[in-house]
Design brief:
By secondary structure, this protein is an alpha/beta fold. Helix content is 36%, strand content 17%. α4 crosses α5 and α5 crosses α6. The protein starts with 5 loop residues before the first helix and ends in a 5-residue tail after the last helix. 35% of the residues are buried.
Amino acid sequence: MKNRNIFYKIFSPIVSLLFYIVFLPKIEGKENIPKKKAAVLAGNHKSNLDCFMVILSTRRCVHFLAKAELFKLSFFNWFFRNSGLIPVYRNGKDRKALETAIQRLRSGELVGVFPEGRLNKAFKNDVLPFKIGAVKMASETGCPIVPFTIKGKYIPFAHSIEIVFGAPYYVEENNLEEANKILERKVCSQLNGRKK
């Protein structure tokens, strides 16, 4: 497990520093990310740069679920897998990706998820319907979800991009569909500036 994250440990401090210098992001609520225990970090997805906003917010390795297309070339497959990423095949329910994420959580690690499942460029103050994976893995492992919301634009040197982490909470609903709606509402409320 440790060796699989070696490139994350090497490159994330360098990339984080460069990202911070260029975009001067605002980070709110990063104390809500557990220091040692497992958690699902779940939030909206507006740009391919979003993962760097999350990486910048914690010193821990975040195992992101990422579209399998990124792993097609041998070098990227090797690099991404050794950076802790989990490939997801989006043409159906990818049970293997879910099981891998659950395994990471049971090992006490952080898993990053964008429940919209793809980039949302259409809605400024709303989100695409969330897929159920984030609440399912939290429910099966008993770990908390930390909802996050990314707001603003990626404009260099402008302090225009912000990430807000909400308070961690546990999935208490037996109905995962309802639990998924709760997560979606929490992210939307942060997107629109309301605390929940």
